[in-house]
């Protein structure tokens, strides 16, 4: 790739390396003098793809832009700065992003002062950065997941020095506390508890795009949760690629069960967490979840595959048997718990029989929800280098069968709600009918229901009258 002075380009091989360097925690964020109020009279728009980690990063981007004096805009059209926070998890996620950047070309043609920035996980991939630099001249700012805090100076160079800025570090840096945040939710909030991932599942690009696992200090997390409670937030979700591994990277090792218990004690009405990898799921964690009413009885327990050989090739470090034992323990200990999962079909050379093993687990666990994907080869990962003898048509058929299987079972499970009264945290009225509201149960079921004079953030009792595969219908009582 053509290197220009001042550019820092990503390197997935570098990103794969893990160091034992201690990670500094920095809690001062200052905006360079020249950049202060650079956004006065200007607007921004952020487009976010991918997981909740990205959603939360976009809240930091927005917080920084607010501090620079920019005003948020509802649409990309008419904005002075557009930032696209991208996801690299599967190829189709990347294609969507490239499509959107392509669409923004028109806006750039109409306004040459427009700054289009791309950040997030795709920016950590050298191949994609090359594509962006050669085929998308409208992109004038490229930065990665490790230097969001440098946005003021990077944006300043773009805006006032006319430079194209490309600054993507392959290695994680410090953990920043106290970065500004503009929360998009008024009663639900995300709380990072850790960054990065060290699991290196062989199909997954996240350990390369997000760097090594770095936990936040428990005291900082608890402080943030307390502030959210004081501000009236009703629900928080603790975020990490692997929340159960929380603290394992710290000297004074803390664990997730302890953190979760301390968070629950602060007393926010609803506490959630994601994602919990079966690998580090401790019994103590299950007990804590069962003990506190404000820890929601909902567990996302990614299966990926129900076949031991495939699991081994994926580097998941559990077997079908140990997964099911964990599942049983969860179901038998936490009252009224709902379980969801992630599954990949068509991992290289997955046989029909191996796929059937996945279906066996699905039939046993009767998941409340499932996110199902066809394997996508990700640059730099071991699985992308495996020879694959399975054609796409077979993979598509498997995905359809898997979806039919879990959908039918989820519908059955939802039907069991009919006649019951459940507590729903109201998201707001529907766009079509102001007397129809939606919200979620403690078990993360979407409920559409009739009601009156309700506000987003209210708790309301709803009697369930009907059940669908992905939602419940009811009436406020
Ligand atoms: N940290 C989480 C997963 C984050 S990625 C965990 O370990 O559970 C979300 C999901 O995307 C994964 O659970 C997996 O099912 C899917 N996924 C990740 N990489 C993929 C790939 N290369 N192809 C298809 N699906 C993938
Ligand atoms: Fe990816 Fe595995 Fe880490 Fe999840 S645990 S982010 S699937 S490497
Ligand atoms: Fe996507 Fe990066 Fe999240 S690849 S799923 S945005 S960690």
UniProtKB/TrEMBL annotation:
One of its GO terms (cellular component) is cytosol. It catalyses: N(6)-dimethylallyladenosine(37) in tRNA + (sulfur carrier)-SH + AH2 + 2 S-adenosyl-L-methionine = 2-methylsulfanyl-N(6)-dimethylallyladenosine(37) in tRNA + (sulfur carrier)-H + 5'-deoxyadenosine + L-methionine + A + S-adenosyl-L-homocysteine + 2 H(+). InterPro entries: Elp3/MiaA/NifB-like_rSAM, Methylthiotransferase, Methylthiotransferase_CS, Methylthiotransferase_N, Methylthiotransferase_N_sf, MiaB_methiolase, rSAM, rSAM_horseshoe. Binds 2 [4Fe-4S] clusters. One cluster is coordinated with 3 cysteines and an exchangeable S-adenosyl-L-methionine. It is found in: Cytoplasm. It holds the Pfam family TRAM. Residues 183-412 form the Radical SAM core domain. Residues 415-477 form the TRAM domain. Belongs to the methylthiotransferase family. MiaB subfamily. This is tRNA-2-methylthio-N(6)-dimethylallyladenosine synthase. It comes from Holdemanella biformis DSM 3989.
